[in-house]
Specification:
141 residues; 2 helices; Serralysin-like_metalloprot_C
Length: 141
């Protein structure tokens, strides 16, 4: 009975560790998703910035009178490109932190599964001991 109880306790603690590992994995995946979303929006802003920069360069080529407006468009395009790059960097940082959290969640899940397996082994050995004790009692009667 003691071995069975300790096996059950180990199984419960293993299940708790597995649950906490899964929770950490879920939060890591959420952070990864938000990081990917930020990265996508950063890439969109970068693309629009590049388009604005190209249009600014075309306007600059068209002549001296259009030079001022072309420079303005180029500056705004460069600003948009810089902000897009900033958003992309922050998205990548969030993605990295999400991956780190996912890794730690997976480690906790693995340790929980290991503890659960050892608890199940202890429970099985306790049940085997109980069966052999019952068989010995029956044969003694």
């Amino acid at each position: 009975l003691k071995a069975t109880r300790s096996g059950l306790k180990a199984t419960r603690s293993g299940l708790k560790a597995t649950r906490s590992g899964l929770t950490a994995t879920r939060s890591g995946l959420k952070a990864t998703r938000s990081g990917l979303t930020a990265t996508r929006s950063g890439l969109k802003a970068t693309r629009s910035g590049l388009k604005a920069t190209r249009s600014g360069l075309k306007a600059t080529r068209s002549g001296l009178t259009a030079t001022r407006s072309g420079l303005k468009a180029t500056r705004s395009g460069l600003k948009a490109t810089r902000s897009g790059l900033k958003a992309t960097r922050s998205g990548l940082k969030a993605t990295r932190s999400g991956l780190k959290a996912t890794r730690s969640g997976l480690k906790a899940t693995r340790s929980g599964l290991t503890a659960t397996r050892s608890g199940l082994k202890a429970t099985r050995s306790g049940l085997t001991a109980m069966r052999s004790g019952l068989n010995a009692t029956r044969s003694a009667q």
